[in-house]
């Protein structure tokens, strides 16, 4: 399954359409208001550069957005299809030529607490993650992206509570299910259980668990990214929400031409290269006491910089930050902490680099200040510059169940 011939074969079977990026359109999942489409014109003043173009209702408390080609998917938190149910709902949108979008399909996510969606590298499988129901569901997708009945719903279990305070580690909390960009693997970080599960997804009728990695107690693994390096060696960046630490793993495939079933397990090697604080240079892992809660991570398109959002849940006055690292993919310690820049708001649950090659802008969804802030990004230093867009969705919301959850660029 790892040879370049089989990869070409697989790619030729895909039916995802490529569309050009449009760094002038942003989509926001807002818990109270729905899925918002905003236009961005940086030639206008920061207070006027973002304009709301449309609003689409997509279930109770939308929490995540995933785009593939011309299609857009969102997941709502719970109450799908109505108040009599607790499952999350998955919604499929079609982007319209005028930049707007409309819902054309929806289905239950088979678990409460929808927080994440991703699609497999061939665009034919959708994974949804339900943090409160402790499940991940897989859905085959038709050629037009229509959602078929779930093929799997994996249930996660906790053997014993973790050290995280409050409700952070009293049950299994899968927080994402992420597909490898060039191998048939899927990774599920479980924030409640301090685990990462790795699946072989080469046969969508027979998805098998390959590994069950135990992480340090109190890590709280939340999200991860695997850059597409186009070769057999790859790196995985895992974000610990509770210990505010980025873990860098190398993923190696020692027998790339193994085609037999289960072969991936014998040849997949996962090794920890580095762990590094999101809060300060050479800072320690934090205790899992919910004061700081790392939110999201993203790599620049040129693979030179990594960004992580820091959410401080204690201080209401102090604005939150993005941590910026330089990245050297060929080093055995790929990350170097460069510094912090303000997100000009509180609780940056999610952010996105703009979709142009240079990633000229960074859009941040600040959940508690209930706003969207767009900043310039310096592609040479990696640091953020001035605010060029500022859109308020509603009043400050300390409950965190009203404001924006995710933002992506077309
Ligand atoms: C909720 O949805 C179910 C299934 O579609 C339907 O049977 C039921 O009548 C709905 N209940 C309400 C209160 O709308
Ligand atoms: C999908 O699930 C629904 C409801 O359980 C069922 O009626 C339908 O036959 C299923 N479709 C397929 C293709 O299995
Ligand atoms: C969790 O428990 C259920 C029920 O016993 C079991 O079917 C499932 O495989 C378990 N999940 C994992 C990831 O071990
Ligand atoms: C995969 O390999 C690991 C480590 O060698 C082993 O513990 C696990 O049982 C294997 N899983 C399968 C499905 O073969
Ligand atoms: C993962 O490993 C733990 C500890 O080794 C074990 O208790 C648990 O059952 C395993 N889960 C799966 C799905 O293999
Ligand atoms: C955003 O706009 C509001 C209202 O004009 C203003 O009070 C706030 O300071 C602005 N924030 C930033 C980061 O520019
Ligand atoms: C971002 O952080 C760098 C390093 O501390 C600093 O030089 C730069 O001025 C900051 N950007 C803004 C907009 O404050």
From TrEMBL:
InterPro entries noted in UniProt: Cycloisomerase_2, Lactonase_7-beta_prop, N2O_reductase_N, WD40/YVTN_repeat-like_dom_sf
Signal sequence extent: 1-21
Molecular function in Gene Ontology: 6-phosphogluconolactonase activity
Keywords linked to the UniProt accession: Signal
The keyword Thylakoid is annotated on this UniProt entry: no
Pfam families xrefs: Lactonase
Name by which UniProt lists this protein: Lactonase, 7-bladed beta-propeller-domain-containing protein
Native species: Stachybotrys elegans
